Amino acid sequence: MVAQWGVVIVAAGKGTRMGTAESKQYLALQDKPILVHTLELFQSLADTKAITLVVGEHDIDRCRNWVTQYGLDKVTAVVSGGAERQHSVHLGLKALPADIEWVMVHDGVRPLVTAEAVRRGCEAAVRAGASVLAVPVKDTIKQVNEAGVIVATPDRQSLWAIQTPQAFRRALLTHAHEEAEAEGFVGTDDAMVVERLGVPVVVAEGDYTNIKITTPEDLPYATFLLEMRKPL
Ligand SMILES: Nc1ccn([C@@H]2O[C@H](COP(=O)(O)OP(=O)(O)OP(=O)(O)O)[C@@H](O)[C@H]2O)c(=O)n1
Ligand SMILES: C[C@](O)(CO)[C@H](O)COP(=O)(O)O
């Protein structure tokens, strides 16, 4: 990594697809909440200067308590999120300290990201201005219409599954979010708001294990992956 990085961790989602009463970011993975695993990774990186944590408004107090309990002293702000992920990112960006020049955005529910992958993403962003972690898709992907009929099979060679963190020069990402908000555009990741300005975003090598915990079967898989990482 170069310079010092601000990190926006978004965790204000409802976890509808997980279907649990408690939002998925607060479920336990081994000994602690999924969100705490995620925060600890970014806390541990030497070049992380500040972390903004974005959560639901009713979860702010418990998250502030965890910041103290787990010694997450790089978390400089815990703020309330918005209706869509993109709104939550924008709110988190605004809460980063003014002197931060480079920023990563990461899903609170990707607790298995590694320091090495983060480093690859940051290096790519510094070279190109904007990067996302990604892995080539393994399956054949089909585009299917509302009647369930296949209408296209895009060339797999050009298809990548996009992950986080996504890393940007802060001024670029802020401008992109302001433009998106002004024009009512809502995308599912941060690269989309930058791409639409015609600014290139490069992919950096992600890991297939950097899963986004989304549906129930992801929980035992995440537990297994964590177990595999324990030293013998
Ligand atoms: N309004 C929102 C929506 C999502 N997120 C965060 O964005 C990340 C990726 O979103 P996703 O996996 O889709 O989470 P949810 O929106 O919670 O899940 P679902 O779509 O199943 O409800 C998660 O860390 C989630 O908490 C957020 O901060 N604010
Ligand atoms: C940002 C992201 O994790 C990249 O894969 C993803 O786009 C989030 O999408 P979701 O609709 O919030 O699951």
TrEMBL record:
InterPro entries: IspD, IspD/TarI, IspD/TarI_cytidylyltransf_bact, ISPD_synthase_CS, Nucleotide-diphossugar_trans
Keyword Translocase annotated: no
Pfam families: IspD
EC number in record: 2.7.7.60
Pathway: Isoprenoid biosynthesis; isopentenyl diphosphate biosynthesis via DXP pathway; isopentenyl diphosphate from 1-deoxy-D-xylulose 5-phosphate: step 2/6
Catalytic activity: 2-C-methyl-D-erythritol 4-phosphate + CTP + H(+) = 4-CDP-2-C-methyl-D-erythritol + diphosphate
Gene Ontology molecular function, alphabetical: 2-C-methyl-D-erythritol 4-phosphate cytidylyltransferase activity
BP terms from Gene Ontology: isopentenyl diphosphate biosynthetic process, methylerythritol 4-phosphate pathway
Residues of the site described as Transition state stabilizer: R17, K24
Family according to the record: Belongs to the IspD/TarI cytidylyltransferase family. IspD subfamily.
Physiological role: Catalyzes the formation of 4-diphosphocytidyl-2-C-methyl-D-erythritol from CTP and 2-C-methyl-D-erythritol 4-phosphate (MEP).
Protein name as annotated: 2-C-methyl-D-erythritol 4-phosphate cytidylyltransferase
Organism, scientific name: Paenibacillus curdlanolyticus YK9
